[in-house]
Specification:
By secondary structure, this protein is an all-beta fold. The chain starts with 8 loop residues before the first strand and ends in an 8-residue tail after the last strand. The strands form four sheets. Strands 4-5-12-6 form a four-stranded mixed beta sheet, with no helix packed on it. The chain has a three-stranded antiparallel beta sheet with strand order 1-3-2, with no helix packed on it. The protein has two domains: 64 residues, no CATH class; 133 residues, no CATH class. The chain is built from no helices and twelve strands.
Length: 200
């Protein structure tokens, strides 16, 4: 989308996001088709209900602030840290902690609620051109659900969480310099611009 400050609106499929689909201008926000407010996800008027619009044009949704009620303090166990990047994983958008001051990896559904005054988009946890891992895995293997192993180099291009026990019934990774690794579904990396103090 470039660095120009000219007004723009773009549509994107929001199934499996591609790096180029993430807004690169900090002013970008989700755009709703005219009359679509209150119908659910952006793009609710389109077939499949799986389209997002990005724009830097002012509109009502741009100024809405997501209400955050969860806290990181005293709930650290709910937010595992990535093994290869300095950030925590947030499994659901509604669970974004109000008091965390660092970088968070959040589901792509955060774009439904994105307000540039509330959150800063830092990057995308899918592809080294959009985030820089702080660890490279040596001889990585991807273990499929049926137990077969294949080349696991993909883990070096995504966010990874190290777990103590072998995951059952799901794909995971191993390497010479880690334990068991799982890669969460595509994450957008954000920071809360105005973290709140945890309730006493």
């Amino acid at each position: 989308m470039g660095e120009a400050a000219q007004p723009f609106t773009a549509l994107s499929h929001c199934g499996a996001p591609q790096p180029q689909d993430v807004p690169r201008q900090k002013e970008s926000t989700v755009a709703y088709p005219e009359g679509a407010e209150g119908l659910g996800r952006p793009g609710a008027l389109t077939e499949g209900r799986n389209t997002l619009g990005f724009t830097n044009i002012s509109h009502k949704k741009r100024n809405e602030t997501a209400i955050l009620y969860k806290t990181y303090r005293d709930n650290e166990w709910e937010y595992p840290k990535y093994d290869n990047y300095d950030a925590i994983d947030v499994s659901k958008t509604k669970n974004i902690p109000m008091d965390y001051v660092g970088t968070m990896g959040v589901p792509i559904t955060v774009l439904d609620k994105y307000n540039p005054e509330q959150f800063e988009i830092v990057g995308l946890g899918n592809g080294r051109e959009f985030f820089t891992p702080n660890k490279d895995y040596i001889n990585p293997k991807q273990i499929m659900k049926d137990g077969t192993a294949k080349n696991g180099n993909a883990i070096n291009r995504v966010l990874a969480i190290e777990v103590d026990k072998k995951p059952k019934g799901s794909t995971y990774y191993t390497s010479s310099n880690s334990g068991y690794l799982v890669a969460p579904y595509a994450r957008i990396l954000i920071k809360n611009k105005n973290p709140q103090r945890s309730p006493a």
